[in-house]
Amino acid sequence: MIVSPSSRRLRVFGSVAILTLIATYIHVRSQWDEASFGYARDYYKSVTSYFGSSVYNNTLYSEGNEEMVDQYYNSSNPCANFPDTDGILLVMKTGATETFDKMPVHLLTTMTCLPDFLIFSDMEQQVGPYHIHDALAEFDESAKAHNADFDLYRDQKECPVSQKSCVDAKRDGQKAWNLDKYKFLPMMEQTWRMRPGRDWYIFAEADTYIFWANIVHWLKNESRLNPREKLYLGSRSFIGGTPFAHGGSGYILSGTLLKHLIEYHPGVVKQYNVKGAHECCGDLMLAQALEEYEKVKIRQVWPMINGEKPSTLPYGPGHWCEPIFTMHHMNAEEISNVWQFEQTRKTDRVLLIRDIYDGLIRPKMQVSRENWDNLSDDVCYLNPDPEAQQRADGHSRDRQKKGEDMNDIEKEAWKSWENCAKVCESQDVPDEEEWDIRGITSRENEPSTANDTEVAEDTSPSDAAAREAWKKAMNEKKRNRSCFQYRWHDEVCCTAKSFKLGAPKMPPDNGDSKAKWVSGWHLKGINDWIDAMGECKKPAWKTPEP
């Protein structure tokens, strides 16, 4: 069949038209899909990215600690660098009034990496899959019945709803404290019964943070302590002349000591349960029991076992190159931050106290803060007026410097925070670049009556040997600095021999300028001291003192 040219053109035109319509449909449909469901696809991608990723911005990363921590926080394998705790058991003590405030952060951080641990309280509770044991469950009923210290214990058990609905932690804080002292000895007995045979038992409170890498390394490699000996280690405190390991700082018992105390003296727990009504503190009673029955006293491990936290640690002499094992009075946010710091450090070397300062505190240091207490209280300067002396607190009066020992700057220090700041400034020494500018001249021809430091200061820096001697003398002065910061309030100026961050203070209600709190840090002096100290060549491990 012969097709005419006109028919052929019509068929071609029709085919083109159909193809054009199909292409147009596909194009329009794709745009419509994008407009209608694009937002959903974007949302899906963002959600899957959030749940699929374990790398986040490191919220601790800031100007001043870039060399210490990574910019990003990879949380995919938090236990990768956690030490082997075989033979070591953590026993943590809490209270029913605080369990759900303080325990979850531990269970989300360090305790996720522990293969085993025990938690004791004054009430049996459950936090997710974790069981809290009642340390007082076996306490003699007759001893509890007529003891007002157990009122809170009974109230907790009768609460038909959550403990926070029944018990006000602030209002009932003293009741919780009174009850707490009875947990210590029963906790020892239950711990040995449930987890016997460990080399070391580390006891801590719910507001205690433990640096596991440090403490495990020390126990297994550095301490040279034998867990088969009867050992009781901690931060030593005293009450009535009796030394004991401060419970909040944490303490360590060797397995042998715990075994002997519980297996060889079955009456010790019952005896001290009764004695508790006449004693202030459970950690004191534990020390008394260990001395009475085992003739064992605490061996000092401070400042490695420590009762302070990052914002209250007294950085400086004695708190610098020492490794850190524990910190106390840590709230949930602080515990999480320190865990994050450990997780994001750029090195796995032993963590020293100076690392806590460099990583967490130094970025927050500034010249001064109003409505702030940086805990300066080593030396105080008060208005000599008798009325002002009476108004000052007893601690400040006890720490004030005698008038005959004060220089002119110190005599004026109480008048204002500006005057107070000058006390630390007066201890400055010139930097090396200032030597020639100050025109230090030689006095070689003058009779020498000064000490070596003064001679070095007055010797011309143009002479290489004298210049080196001068530099050495200045560095020595920097290392021996005794004023790093100040606090001024109500005509009381106090300075500190260490540097701490501290905490906010409520501003005065009446707007009285004398009543406000002003804290300041002499950053030049702090940095001079750090520079003069140099790098910590090796960790300053402490040998337990008898």
Automatic annotation (TrEMBL):
InterPro entries: C1GALT1/C1GALT1_chp1. Residues 388-406 have a biased composition (Basic and acidic residues). Keywords: Membrane, Signal-anchor, Transmembrane, Transmembrane helix. Its main location: membrane. Residues 383-406, 425-465 are annotated as: Disordered. It is a single-pass type II membrane protein. The keyword Membrane applies. Transmembrane segments: none annotated. It is found in: Membrane. PANTHER family: APPLE DOMAIN-CONTAINING PROTEIN (PTHR23033:SF40), BETA1,3-GALACTOSYLTRANSFERASE (PTHR23033). Belongs to the glycosyltransferase 31 family. Beta3-Gal-T subfamily. This is Glycosyltransferase family 31 protein. It comes from Daldinia eschscholtzii.
